[in-house]
Amino acid sequence: MTPKTVRRVNWIGGITTVLTVVIAVLWAFPLYWGIVSSLKPENEVVRPFIELWPDTLTFRHYWFALTETQIGAWYLNSIVTSLGVTVVTVTTSLFAGYALSQLRFPGRTILWWLILASFMVPTQVLIINHFVLMADMGLLNSWAGIILPQLIHPVIIIVYKQFFDQVPKDFREAAAMDNASEWNVLFRIYIPMNWGVTTALSIVTFIWAWNAFLWPFLAVTKTEMMTITVGITQVFDAFGVYYARQLSAAVLAGFPVALAYLLFQRKVTQAITLSAGIKG
pTM to 2 decimals? Predict the structure, then answer.
């Protein structure tokens, strides 16, 4: 590589780095602004000019959110529903992916194409059907009513199927020679080989369920049954909207997800890569 080429590569690398930093700052600024504004008195938040740091630092808005709202119940509802969605979705998707990959049964091809075609149907299109079904079953304003319509994640089935397709057939043939049942093959061979994939998909599914807003917003009208993403819309005062209070509640709502991402960043990235590869 000639010196001229090296200089050109350095320029390209430098420009790319600068653009990356600029984009990162633009992306992170709303998050920074929300956190900083939640630490300001309300009169500073509504000022007509931008202040990057509060003149008076206060945590009273967080205290209000923690003591004057039902945020504890909202957290509990989000934890229960998110864990329920995660456990049921990942478990059923694992079984479905294994069946589609390793078993031969009537209608298998049609079922597989139906799962692939489900990508063409936006979840929002099914909202009315979900609402009518949950209302007819008497499950509105309940954990089950929040969980059941959120169990549709065909991408997880597809990820599992593709993973199981890549497992060497020798393992299955050896198990068959030992007269192992399908359950033994699944639990003793295939599942232990994909704990990493299962962990990654579980984390991402939990984050999806925690951040869900539209369906929990429609399915729940009782304040005590709201999830955290819906509950923070109830943080207001009889005298009007207090932006700092709502921002503090929003920060508290997003903190568990941000913490989970920081702790399991590699697994989350792995799951997103798998999902993106499937959709691409």
Answer: 0.81
